[in-house]
């Protein structure tokens, strides 16, 4: 069995709005970050890809309140993992039949 995870730009967008993230970035930066998410929605997202998106959001957000409440970057990344990824499960008998992995 194979598990494939992708980053969903729509979910990232919603997550940012719901949590008041990316308030310190401009439209160009925000659009570039969402474009990266679109790219990773069409291919498997690695740990490094997820951390890149997370770091981009973190760097363009006012995280003072989050940190003061005891939140860490690791907690923040868990939010991305739980709310912004899409998972696909491929059974063993379907691996490499219809999908290039």
Describe what you observe in this structure.
By secondary structure, the protein is mainly alpha-helical. It has one domain (2-94). It is built from five helices and two strands; from the N terminus they run βαααααβ. The chain has helices at 9-18, 27-41, 47-59, 64-68, 73-83; strands at residues 2-7, 85-90. Strands 1-2 form a two-stranded antiparallel ribbon. Helix 1 (9-18) crosses helix 2 (27-41) and helix 3 (47-59) packs across helix 5 (73-83). The protein is elongated, with a radius of gyration of 15 Å. 16% of the residues are buried.
In brief, what are we looking at here?
With 101 residues, the protein is mainly alpha-helical. The protein has helices at residues 9-18, 27-41, 47-59, 64-68, 73-83, and strands at residues 2-7, 85-90.
Q: What is the multimeric organization of the chains shown?
A: single chain
Question: How are the strands of the biggest sheet laid out side by side?
Answer: 1-2
The assigned structural class equals mainly alpha
Low-confidence stretches: none
Counting DSSP E segments of at least 2 residues, the number of strands comes to: 2
Number of self-contained structural domains: 1
Distance between the termini: 12 Å
Write down the overall mean pLDDT: 90
Helix content: 40-55%
Molecular shape? elongated
Rg on CA atoms, Å: 15 Å
Largest sheet: number of strands, sense, barrel closure: 2 strands, antiparallel
Order of helices and strands: EHHHHHE
The count of helical stretches stands at 5
Q: Hey, roughly how much beta strand do the residues contain?
A: 5-15%
């Amino acid at each position: 069995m194979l598990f494939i995870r992708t980053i969903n730009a729509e979910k990232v967008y919603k997550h940012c709005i719901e949590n008041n993230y990316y308030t310190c970035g401009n439209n160009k930066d925000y659009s570039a970050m969402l474009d990266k998410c679109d790219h990773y929605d069409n291919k498997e997202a690695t740990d490094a890809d997820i951390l890149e998106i997370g770091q981009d959001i973190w760097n363009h957000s006012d995280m003072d309140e989050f940190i003061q409440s005891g939140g860490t970057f690791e907690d923040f990344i868990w939010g991305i993992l739980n709310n912004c990824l899409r998972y696909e499960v491929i059974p063993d008998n379907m691996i490499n039949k219809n999908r290039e992995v």
